[in-house]
Amino acid sequence: MVIPLKKIIMHKLRMRLKEPFATSFGVMQEKEFYIIEVVDSDGNKGYGETVAFSVPWYTEETVKSNRDIIVDCLIPILREHELYHPDEVFPLFEKLRGNNMAKAAVEGAIWDLYAKRKGISLATALGGEKTEIGVGISIGIQRTVGELISKIEQSLEEGYKRIKLKIKPGLDVEILREVRRHFPDTPIMADANSAYSLKDISLLKELDDLDLMMIEQPLQHYDIIDHAKLQNQLKTPICLDESIHSLYDVEKAIELGSSKVINIKIGRVGGLSESKRIHNYCKKQGIPVWCGGMLEAGIGRAHNIALSALANFILPGDTSGSSRYWEEDIIHPEVIAEKGIIKVPTSPGIGYEINEDALRKFRVERQEYQI
Ligand SMILES: O=C(O)CCC(=O)C1=CC=C[C@@H](O)[C@@H]1C(=O)O
Ligand SMILES: [Mg+2]
């Protein structure tokens, strides 16, 4: 049956993180993004969230580029085509290069709407069977090792299943060694956000002695060649993040041996359909995957949770609970991680309601477009 799309409402939100989040590329304290609401002619609503940052330091997309691409390019495509299933969205949008985060936000809203129309959860619509998912936490660069140690202690008390630490040149081996001394058995991984090159091989080999679960994206943000060379010399698995924009990239990276683990971010790969394909391919290849995060608010987190219900999301993802970043989230109930476990919602669609009061409170703009 056709999905009778009627209109799209774009809500621009501005929310303040509880505390600054520092990575090798910069510090974030405020998040701006769009909630994409698709409405059908029966009055059902589906929601998606854009995940690009205001500044193009993670990928080239930004909050503004997301908005422009959605309004100027993606909505016009939807006006011209009838949809029967959300898997049809990706091939329509694929005619346009890049802009995966813009595409994913719209596609995600259509997936939610589709699942609601069917009366099934988004996880079920995607083929996910897990009833709960294990989650880890991503900790930004701290001012002192002492502060980092107490952040880790607190996260372990909250039950998070693995600790991801951001590193950058000058704030790496020494700190991780100290952390390892304090927490000899904790599953710890490091994320460099492309801050190193093969010239740093001796330093990267020192990281190799720290029994890390994996090292995430140590080298250049589009690279898969040097990562293969590096992986050859390390026993610690490399996990690619920034270098992966599609199933094509994953196939090449696995063929070259650049990555033994894949971080799937729905926005980075252009949506849930492509995420599913990457998941299925990695499963066949025996490559474990986990779901990355983009400091999303509740709608984005809900999509990550639904995706993580697929079988090969073996490793804990970055989908920490709402209270990790927000005083108040925009969904009801908020995402709760208890002992590092989040229950996968079973009600239709993403399984969380919009907290309309919070939405209004954080909204700085609202635009409606007819389909
Ligand atoms: O959403 C989360 O909790 C994970 C945050 C996180 O680690 C990241 C978000 C966005 C860009 C990076 O800094 C980083 C990552 O690379 O995974
Ligand atoms: Mg990363």
TrEMBL record:
Tagged with keyword Metal-binding: yes
GO terms of molecular function: magnesium ion binding; O-succinylbenzoate synthase activity; racemase and epimerase activity
CDD domains referenced in this protein's UniProt entry, alphabetically: NAAAR
Domain named Mandelate racemase/muconate lactonizing enzyme C-terminal: residues: 145-237
Active-site residues annotated for this sequence: 166 (proton donor), 265 (proton acceptor)
One annotated GO biological process: menaquinone biosynthetic process
Residues engaged in binding Mg(2+): 191, 216, 241
Catalytic activity field: (1R,6R)-6-hydroxy-2-succinyl-cyclohexa-2,4-diene-1-carboxylate = 2-succinylbenzoate + H2O
InterPro entries: Enolase-like_C_sf (IPR036849), Enolase-like_N (IPR029017), Enolase_C-like (IPR029065), Mandelate_racemase_C (IPR013342), Mandelate_racemase_N_dom (IPR013341), MenC (IPR047585), OSBS/NAAAR (IPR010197)
Keywords of the record: Lyase, Magnesium, Menaquinone biosynthesis, Metal-binding
Cofactor: a divalent metal cation
EC number: 4.2.1.113
Pathway, per record: Quinol/quinone metabolism; 1,4-dihydroxy-2-naphthoate biosynthesis; 1,4-dihydroxy-2-naphthoate from chorismate: step 4/7; Quinol/quinone metabolism; menaquinone biosynthesis
Top class in the EC scheme: lyase
Sequence similarity: Belongs to the mandelate racemase/muconate lactonizing enzyme family. MenC type 2 subfamily.
HAMAP family: MenC_2 (MF_01933)
Free-text function comment from the UniProt entry: Converts 2-succinyl-6-hydroxy-2,4-cyclohexadiene-1-carboxylate (SHCHC) to 2-succinylbenzoate (OSB).
Protein name in UniProt: o-succinylbenzoate synthase
Organism, as annotated: Ornithinibacillus bavariensis
